[in-house]
Amino acid sequence: MRISKKKIILFSLLGLCLVFAAFRNSDKYFLIAKNLDIFAAFYRELNTYYVEDLPPEKLMHKGIEAMLEETDPYTDFVPEEELDELRFMATGKYGGVGTSIYTEGEWTTITDVYEGSPMARAGVKAGDIIVSLDGKSAKNMEQEEVSRFLKGNAGTVLNIVLRHPITQKETPYKIVREDINVKPVSFAGVVRNEIGYIKMTQFTESSGILVQDAFLKLKKENPGLKGVILDLRGNPGGLLEEAVTLSNIFIDKNKLIVSTKGKVKSWDREYKTAQPAIDLAIPLVVLTSRSSASAAEIVAGAVQDLDRGLVVGQRSYGKGLVQTTRPLPYNAKLKVTTARYYTPSGRCIQAIDYSSRNEEGEADYVPDSLRRSFVTAAGRPVKDGGGIEPDAKVDNMVLSQVAITLLRKQYIFDYATQYYYSHQQAKPASSFSLTEAEFDDFVKFLDGRDYSYKTRSEEALESFRTTAEREKYYGGLAKEFEALQQKMKHDKKQDLLRNKTEIKHLLEEEIMNRYYPQQGRIEKGLSWDKDVDQAVALLGNPARYQELLRKK
């Protein structure tokens, strides 16, 4: 058999490529081994001869943190003592008493009590103040330390003393910690015009099935259901498999939902729906916000790419990376980004490029000029590199400075506590509304309380002054600046009245959360939610809904 000269040259080049590739790999592993030896020797010499004793664990953790700075924020070292947090992200469960807290000044206050939790069964209420924990005074205790006391293995006992916010009476409680399961479906109901609504907060174990159960219950109780809103705003994501399970409720069997590609090619996978859909026909809207990320974006991306429904709200966060946990010695874990994920159209929606950094080592967003175009199943254009862009955009609601200050200072929370103890009965959350007299009572409640703040205009003016001083222009502008500053001085009470509607809404939500924990705040908030209004309008207008699904 004769081999042509071209083939001989081709085989020779192929052989050289293989040798070169092997050399490159061996060279890389040699460099790794070499630098590990240097690192170990460096630490040994430093630890032996440095004039002071060096804490080995602290020193090594700093070294690990320095290495992690070269990766993305999702790659992390998890020591054994922090595994509970990792477990909570996957399961939605943690050992504790079932409450949220907030520390302001000297004391920590109970802000939420989870339904069915040990704290709820003991009769603890939002607004109660923590006096002591296991015999230790909670006065001036950091919030993180209070949280450590509240958490613990199921079956262990917490001795806690609480002060009533109105009567100031102190009561001791003996609370047995349990496995607290934070519900991934925080609310499900009908908003208006026979439109269903499901709020999902995280993608933990079995969350997809729980959304399915909520949807089936909605359909059973409301035979005339005309559409459904799946609210993924603020949902940080979680388990990729649960995103596929949830998508399968509305997307039929054997449809590609997401694929992953990384350095280890044997780990590349395609994730398809495994079961027939529960409902292929019902009109669907997925709500997203700037903080909808990861698995939430997988669902939104699949619904959009397969033209199964519309995405409404704001552009999502843009997390297109997949993490895997790897075991380390002494029960520690490495949570490491191993792949990028791709929606059915083939786009990766990762917004920040961590592989390319500036001279300061900072990663930046993928510029619009480098974002590539893809098409949905029906031919609608979509782009990669910047999260999921909604089919119908709604401007993000921005709270006024006075409202932000009232929330931050806990004055809205404190007034809701006072209201709850002076009004033992309440209307259903959806129909509750503060009267004019009650809002006036809130204004009086604020008398003597400090809620000073700077408006955004004042902050901009101060920034202008700083720049003018630096550039030596301020001297000639001082009089005009001071005159403008006087004109802009805001009257706090006038700001309250100017933003009355917004503040009333926040008060109503917090008050309803006292009577109907967790669900009351959500249900009341739905009555003035612009994203929900847009979704209801689209689902109630089949022609417009279909037009957006076909739009090219």
From TrEMBL:
Q: Name one Pfam family in it.
A: PDZ_6
**UniProt-listed CDD domains:** cpPDZ_CPP-like, Peptidase_S41_CPP
Q: InterPro entries, alphabetically? A: ClpP/crotonase-like_dom_sf, PDZ, PDZ_6, PDZ_sf, Peptidase_S41A, Tail-specific_protease
What's in the keyword line of the UniProt record? Hydrolase, Protease, Serine protease
Its Gene Ontology cellular component terms are:
outer membrane-bounded periplasmic space
Q: Which GO terms describe its molecular function?
A: endopeptidase activity; serine-type peptidase activity
User: In this protein, which residues make up the domain named PDZ?
Assistant: 85-165
Any one GO biological process = signal transduction
* Gene3D superfamilies linked: 2-enoyl-CoA Hydratase, Chain A, domain 1, 2.30.42.10, 3.30.750.44
Q: Which family does it belong to?
A: Belongs to the peptidase S41A family.
Protein name, as recorded:
S41 family peptidase
Species the sequence originates in: Chitinophaga lutea
